[in-house]
Amino acid sequence: xxxxxxxxxxxxxxxxxxxxxxxxxxxxxxxxxxxxxxxxxxxxxxxxxxxxxxxxxxxxxxxxxxxxxxxxxxxxxxxxxxxxxxxxxxxxxxxxxxxxxxxxxxxxxxxxxxxxxxxxxxxxxxxxxxxxxxxxxxxxxxxxxxxxxxxxxxxxxxxxxxxxxxxxxxxxxxxxxxxxxxxxxxxxxxxxxxxxxxxxxxxxxxxxxxxxxxxxxxxxxxxxxxxxxxxxxxxxxxxxxxxxxxxxxxxxxxxxxxxxxxxxxxxxxxxxxxxxxxxxxxxxxxxxxxxxxxxxxxxxxxxxxxxxxxxxxxxxxxxxxxxxxxxxxxxxxxxxxxxxxxxxxxxxxxxx
Length: 352
Description:
Elements: E1 10-17, E2 43-51, E3 54-61, E4 65-70, E5 76-82, E6 110-115, E7 131-135, E8 138-142, E9 151-159, E10 164-172, E11 178-188, E12 193-197, E13 212-214, E14 225-227, E15 231-235, E16 253-257, E17 263-268, E18 271-276, E19 291-295, E20 300-305, E21 309-311, E22 316-326, H1 335-348
Antiparallel strand pairs: 1-2, 2-3, 3-4, 4-5, 6-11, 7-8, 8-9, 9-10, 10-22, 11-20, 11-21, 12-15, 12-17, 13-16, 14-15, 16-19, 17-18, 18-22, 19-20
C-alpha cells in the first residue's frame, strides 16, 4: 500500500517555544519567539501545508516527532511519525483528499467517536471543514455540528519536547439530554503488535473480578491473540487472510479489557506508539471495557474510552491522553519478558 508523505509545499509557519503562554494567534503567518522554561525544551514548529490532497492541514514538529492534522474534514490526525521515519497510522489511499462525501469515510488516522456504538450517532458524518486556532505549541480544531448525534467535537493538541497531549471534547449542542462516552480511535498501520494490560487483583479474594470483553465475532483460538495473566498481545501480522464467505468478514475481531492502568502500546518495526491516560471512575459503555482493540488484515485500532456521561444541552464530556513515539524498541513475545519492557515505559511516562 502506498502511503502519502508530509513533504508538501508549505504555506505558512509559526514557531513557538514550549512553556510560553502564547494565547490566541490570529495570523498564522506571524512568527513569534518565546524563551523556553527549561533548557531541555525545544521549539515546536507549526507549518500550514497541503497533505494528501487536502489544503487546510497543519504539521506540528518538535524536532523528534511530527504530527499532521487535517482541518478540511474531521478533526482528523492523519500522520504521526518520528522524524525521518514512517507514519505509524493507517490510511485508506482512495479516501485521502476527499471532502463533502455523503457517507461516513474511514480514511484512516485518528478520529474521535462517541459510544455506545450506534451507526446513527457514532458514524455521524465528519466530512466538512473545521475551524482552527493556533495555540502555544499546538492547535485547537472544532468541527461542525453533527445533527444526528446532537454534538460538536473539539480537539486540542499540544506538542511538547517529548509527547503529544490530546484533549478531546464532545459538547451537546442539541435541545435534549444525551448520554455519551468519548472514544479515542487511532488506526495503526499493519504489521505490528498491540499491548494492553489485564489487571491482577488479590488472588486470595474470591470476589475480585476482571473483565475480558469479547465481541460476538471474536474467537480466542485466533492466532493473533496471546492472552496471559497480566497482558493481552494482538499480533496484527498473524491475522489470516479473509475467507470468501457470506456474513461479517472473517478477518475482523475485537476484544477489550476493564483495566484501570491507563496505558496501551503498538510496536511496528522498531517504533513503539505509546499512549497514557487517567482512567476515570464510572460506567463504561461496552461491557465496562476501558480499552479495546479491533483488528483485521488491513489495520489495528488501539482504542480507549471515557465513562458514560449524561450531557444536558450545553454540557461537555472530555477525554485527555498523551502520546509518545520511541524508536529502536524490541518487545519479547513471552509475557513476563514483555511486561518487564512495557513496565519500564509505564515508569518513564506519566499522564500529567
